[in-house]
Structures are given as structure tokens and as C-alpha cells.
Amino acid sequence: MTRALNVSPVDIPLSVLELSPVVSGMTSGQALHNTLDLAKHAERLGYRRFWLAEHHNMPGIAAAVPEILIGQVAAVTKTLRVGSGGVMLPNHAPLHVAETFKTLEALYPGRIDLGIGRAPGTDGLTALALRRSREALHADDFDAQLSELFAFGSGDFPAHHPFQAVQAVPTDVPLPPVYLLGSSDYSARLAGQLGLGFAFAYHFSPHALLPALRAYREGFVPGDVEKPHAIVTVSVFCAPTDDDAHFLAGPMQLTFLKLRSGEPIQLPSPEEARDYPYTPDERAALEAIRAMQIVGSPDTVRSRLGELIAKTQADELMVTTMMYAHSDRLRSFELVAGALRGVPA
């Protein structure tokens, strides 16, 4: 037995990354209300954080504006930390982000996280619609945007800076804790240099995981946090048996396949995913998608997550799960929590 299989949930907190999936035949309103229900369920199960993603122009994802959902989730929970996973900073003015999250922090002090990413969270045309100019679309100024966000957060612009007289309201509330999100070593290195927490997207970029975590830890300088805090986000599908779990994971795998081919869809039913006429190339792509996910019974999931913990020495696991039936998704999060606590299914 590896050391990882003995790791307790006290050592490895569990958190949730939520995308508000829209399944075939469901309205976006239903999907968003399911998100609120999942948040309350996660809080009862002892999950630490509940982060909302930012995606645009995707019919199968209702989470486009995480800041609105953060306020809604925080209002129906009491202890859960709620945050963005993340706000895609190049899509927004740093002043707007600062004021939005200061407001959330004022309403729910000590419970808000600000996760920041630098990807668009969408296709190029939609990113252009968000940023309003091709110059902004192709600008390589993430570091400058981040510095501006922190300056608005603290009210501490350098002397003679053009924004020195601009205050982010509310002025008497700090920015919540900031985490950088990434799928390569760029954000990992930057998070280390700035002394921030770092969340890695293993659920769609598994091969860059270890180099990014190594770069983050080796380059870490104490800042907002005293020591590195690495969150690994992983796609998990858990059911009473391995066969059940693979059946329930099918819709997300087909949806991801379609997204990669430029044909985003709503989440189909497990039967539709099973009966889809995959081409040989699609089947090969499907195997690569499956390799990025952890799918199985509680015993299988516990073993696979244990291996991931041992390999990465993660400080926290963030689970994302997209299933057709809301009840199956609730059950999956319950089984994952129980598996790492040694609770029988």
C-alpha cells in the first residue's frame, strides 16, 4: 500500500469546481439551481471550497459569470469558501474585478476566493466580442493586468501613476485571497514568485502537471501565503461499481470530444453517449480523454486519487464532475468524500 492511500481528508481537503452543466432537455435556469443544490450538498459533506468557472459561448455550460453565482452560492451556504475558478482576467478590466470581489468580500467576509486565469475561456471570436478590439485580444499584458488588480485592491499605486486617484469601492474592504490558475508552468512560476496559491487544471492538461508543480514550489517566495499551496483539479466520476461509473462518465466524454472538434453540445444522456456512432479517430480521441479522468467505484477512485496525491504531493484536491442526472452527480460527490474518509459506500 502506498503512502497516499493512508492520507486522511484532514491532510488532503476536498473542494469542488463547478461549471453548471446544461443537459439535453434542461433549461439553463434548472442547471443554475442544480448548482445551488450541489453547493449545499458539498457543504454538508465537508468540502472546503466551491469554485465557479467562467466559460462563454458553450451551450452545455451555464456558468458564464462566476461573480453572480458566487454571491448566490454564498447566500445559501454558511461555512463553504466560495470563489472563482476562475475569472479570466484578460476578459475584464482589473478595476471591475477588484470592485466585484471587494463587494463579495464585504457581503461574505472570510469566505470568498479570487481565482484568476489568463485563458479566454472560450473561442477566439467570442473572446474578441468580450475584449472589443483585436489589440486587446492579442495583447501579452497579463502580468501588468495582475499588478493593476493588486494595486486597486490595496489602493497603493506608485506615485504619478495615472490611476493613483482611482479607488476601488468599497475602499475599506481588502481583496479576498488570490489564487492563480493554470495548465502550464507560466502561471505556476508567476504564482510562486508572487507568493500566491496555485491551482493546476489536471482535468484537461495532465502531462504538464508535474513540471508546473515543480516550478511553483522551487520558485516560491512567501507572500500572501507563507508556504506553497497547490490545488490539483481532477475530473472524477464515482458510482457504486466501475461499470456504472463508466456508463455515467460517457456523456461528459462525448461532450468534451465535440468541444475539441469545434461542435459544442449540451450534455447528452448516458444512453445517447453509449450509442453514438464514433469513428475510429473519435474512439482514439476518446481514449485520450478517458486517460485524463478518474472513473470507477469508491475503491477504484480511492486508489487512483491516492496515486495522484502521492505523485503530486497536492495540498488540496478540487473535484469536477459532469453527469446527466443531478442525483447521480450528488451521489458521486458523496461517494468520493466517503472513499477518502474510509466510509463504506
Automatic annotation (TrEMBL):
Domain Luciferase-like: 25-310
Transmembrane segments: none
Top-level division of the source organism's lineage: Bacteria
Family, as annotated: To bacterial alkanal monooxygenase alpha and beta chains.
Family matches, as PANTHER family: LUCIFERASE-LIKE MONOOXYGENASE
UniProt cross-references to CDD domains, sorted A to Z: Flavin_utilizing_monoxygenases
Assigned GO CC terms: cytosol
UniProt xrefs under NCBIfam families: oxido_grp_1
Keyword Amino-acid biosynthesis on entry: no
GO MF assignments: monooxygenase activity; oxidoreductase activity, acting on paired donors, with incorporation or reduction of molecular oxygen
Source organism per UniProt: uncultured Truepera sp
Keyword terms: Monooxygenase, Oxidoreductase
Entry protein name: Luciferase-like monooxygenase YhbW
